[in-house]
Specification:
The protein is mainly α and 288 residues long. 60% of the residues lie in helices and 1% in strands. α3 packs parallel to α6, α6 crosses α10 and α16 runs antiparallel to α18. The N and C termini lie far apart (68 Å). The mean pLDDT is 94.
């Protein structure tokens, strides 16, 4: 009945020992489920028949991470994470995920969805609707990683969670053996997303610095997507592209006299460039 099951997009084990022979096949099934395949009853029974953490803990984490990265590119990436939680599989690889349902996303008038897992799922779904980029979706899902560090006595608020997420993001990505570009992207998405969410209230100087940091971290396209997805109204970052363009301008393009610039003390040059960028941004978008 294999052809019929393929036509129905049903995932069924080839034998009674398929998952025991290689437990990573569980995550492969979850990855296919993220592409709108269905788990056959026999698959569910095998997954739920035992605990898997001891066996998984001796398998190289890279094999799990490959399935994770592939799942993020699928049409329904949120299913990969929800199935991990539903079947309690993979905590040895991704313990952060299993903590998220028990943590409030924030005050209910800002986060009526309630818990951090639901909020993170919603943000990733909104990012996924706008971009097929796996890294953008990954950053969307884990942008609030710093909230895992909040003292429970302070719930439901998470003051400083943006900065608090930087270190844990690096550690998580390193543990998962993800590329250095992914480590940097997630760490800076965690650090910068709150400022991005308040873009309309920022001074021109802060906007320029934010654009510079995002560009250096490789998240110039990712940060505005995550920020928009993180807000109930889905509002964007007005003139973000303008700020990025200005941060990429050379001193000559900024109108800095080269002879005077070269005569300046080296430690004064960065401030001169920043001042000209701020001036240019104010001229182009008329902000304070």
């Amino acid at each position: 009945g294999g052809q019929q099951e393929l036509a129905a997009r049903q995932l069924r084990p080839c034998s009674e020992s398929s998952l025991q022979d290689d437990p990573i096949r569980i995550f492969r099934a979850f990855r296919f489920a993220a592409d709108s395949w269905n788990l056959h009853t026999e698959t569910v029974q095998q997954v739920d028949s035992q605990t898997w953490e001891d066996g998984l803990s001796v398998i190289p984490v890279e094999r799990f991470s490959r399935e994770l990265q592939k799942a993020l590119a699928m049409s329904r990436p949120e299913r990969f994470f929800s199935l991990m939680l539903q079947h309690r599989v993979g905590e040895c690889y991704l313990p952060e995920l299993f903590k998220m349902p028990d943590i409030p996303a924030g005050p209910l008038h800002y986060h009526p969805e309630g818990d951090l897992f639901t909020h993170s799922m919603q943000v990733m779904q909104r990012v996924a609707a706008r971009s097929p980029d796996s890294l953008a979706r990954f950053c969307g899902f884990f942008h609030d990683l710093g909230k895992l560090s909040t003292d429970s006595a302070l719930y439901p608020r998470h003051h400083g969670h943006d900065e608090a997420g930087y270190g844990p993001a690096l550690k998580m990505c390193q543990r998962l053996r993800l590329p250095a570009s992914w480590q940097k992207a997630l760490a800076f998405t965690c650090r910068l997303h709150t400022k991005a969410n308040n873009w309309d209230k920022l001074r021109s100087s802060t906007r320029i610095r934010l654009a510079e940091q995002a560009a250096r971290a490789g998240i110039a396209d990712i940060l505005p997507m995550v920020s928009s997805a993180d807000k109930p109204d889905g509002s964007g970052m007005n003139a973000w592209e303008t700020a990025l363009r200005i941060t990429a301008m050379t001193t000559a393009e900024l109108g800095i006299d080269q002879e005077i610039f070269l005569q300046m003390p080296v430690h004064h040059r960065a401030n001169r460039i920043l001042h000209k960028r701020i001036q240019r941004l104010r001229e182009e978008i008329c902000t304070p």
